[in-house]
Amino acid sequence: MSTVLSSVPSAATSDADAVERIRHLVGGEARPGASGRTAPVFNPATGRRTGELPLASSEEVDEAVAAAATAFEEWRRVSVARRTKLMFAYRNQVAEHAREIAKRLTAEHGKVLADAMGEVARGLENIEYACGLAEHLKGTYNEQASTGVDVYSVRRPLGVVAGITPFNFPAMVPLWMFPNAIACGNTFVLKPSPRDPGAASFIAELFHEAGFPPGVLNVVHGDHVAVNRLLEHPAVQAISFVGSTPVARHVYETATAHGKRVQALGGAKNHMVVLPDADIDLAADSAVSAAYGSAGERCMAISVAVAVGDSADPLVEAIRARMEKLRIGPGDDPASEMGPLITAEHRDRVADYVRQGAEAGARVVVDGRRAQFDGDGFFLGVTLLDHVTPDMTVYRDEIFGPVLCVVRADTYHDAVELLSDNPWGNGAAIFTRDGGAARQFQEDADAGMIGLNVPIPVPVGYHSFGGWKESAFGAHAIYGPEGVHFYTKPKVMTTRWPDPAGSRVDLGFPTNR
Question: What is the CATH number of the domain that holds 396?
């Protein structure tokens, strides 16, 4: 297979040769950057620079959009059968190269290989859903809506659409977007995170290898210059975004002001409520995996455990005991259960939140700042803070790192009130053996995705992902059925054919309406 976007350097190459020159993909061609601006890409486990990323100018974004617009004129007319065959071919390409994609994720993001393989698997779910879009693109038909009048509807593609994706899931989140968009008949411009662009570039390469026409999927790398140009470009019809809440709000306000559809997913502070009757071992296992998996750099990570009543002391002790056994190390080490954070700056920011929590009066049960690591990687140990209160910055802010806060609540209703007061509403979970309490929580929890004894309730690919409140901006959730509606627009036809002379048949009853 030819490499059209980038290459993974061999371990035998020198440091200078090992720096990967990443390229844009425009109209099926790999292009070096022309702006003169670049950004470094690092391996978080070693702290070494491994890549050089071109930062696109507005003019380079315009070229990618123009290529997508040209491709759209033919792609929109390609049969659903042909689109489906190509999408199946792409699904097989991604499945065949799943481990290579995962290695790229580990090398640039730092997550352990098991997490990376899980990310690829969840991305595959969305490609597989796109393979079945023929069913979801079917229209509706009413014969004889009025005498001699038929009415039917179809869903049509929007045109050129764009996706702006985050560093924490550099393969999965793009796959939340462009398979559905393209299967619906649109063409796509992807702007991946500049921190770990290799996996996104590679899955775009596999898309090209699957046989899709040039320009159907384009990739431009960059920073705020590329983002703002996509938000303003008159030929871009819709924007999909996943990232922090402040940027999601900017994306939503800017793009809608320019007449675009927008789905913008923001940040979160997900709560996990543990009732006194809960299975404490299950709750503790779930809290550790959900809070510290992928170094806590997940928008669906559990950030707050709300311990209700007598559950608090046993839960804190059970979590602490499990944290002592957690293996932190390079993501490519099979023994590692958690890898580094994405950058040195982010590591230091997360560590400072631990300091703020301690100074505000939280009890530091486990202090991740004390963990020692060899080398220059961006590692930080795991932290558990108890007796956290809602006025503390560790509770109010999205930390996005391996820090779990325990808030103690006297009653179920106090716990639910915490969720209601939380400005975010991505996910929420409850751990209990009481079916009545679980059912009530489904009604009471003020969040878009709810887990019952499930800490991270990310929907499967044939449902849709979306939070509430400050966690999401726009009318549609992402992927699944909501994604199909987002990437299409309805058209309704009302038809009546005049009867040829003398062709009317007397049916023997009134037909006028």
Answer: 3.40.309.10
Structural domain for 111, as ranges: 15-266+471-492
193 in Cβ contact with 219 (< 8 Å) = no
Q: What's this model's pTM, rounded to 2 decimal places?
A: 0.93
Which tokens hold the place of 450?
A: 């709810």
For the chain, the C-alpha Rg in angstroms (whole number) is 25
Are both 215 and 364 inside the same structural domain? no
Cα separation of 131 and 179, whole Å? Answer: 8
pLDDT per residue as tens digits for the range 239-267: 999 999 999 999 999 999 999 999 999 99
**Residues forming beta bridges with residue 469, ordered by sequence position:** 424
Q: Find the mean pLDDT for residues 134-147.
A: 92
The HSE-up count of residue 147 (CA atoms within 13 Å, CB side) is 7
- 487, 181 in Cβ contact below 8 A? yes
230 shares its domain with 328? no
For residue 406, which of 384, 391, 430 has the smallest C-alpha distance?
Answer: 384
Q: Domain with 38 in it: what CATH number?
A: 3.40.605.10
Q: Is residue 504 domain-resident?
A: no
Q: Which residues are catalytically annotated?
A: 299
The residue count for the chain: 513
**Token pair 């290579």 in the structure block, residue:** 100
In a domain, 86, yes or no: yes
What's the token pair of residue 385? 């803070």
- Whether 324 is in a domain gets the answer yes
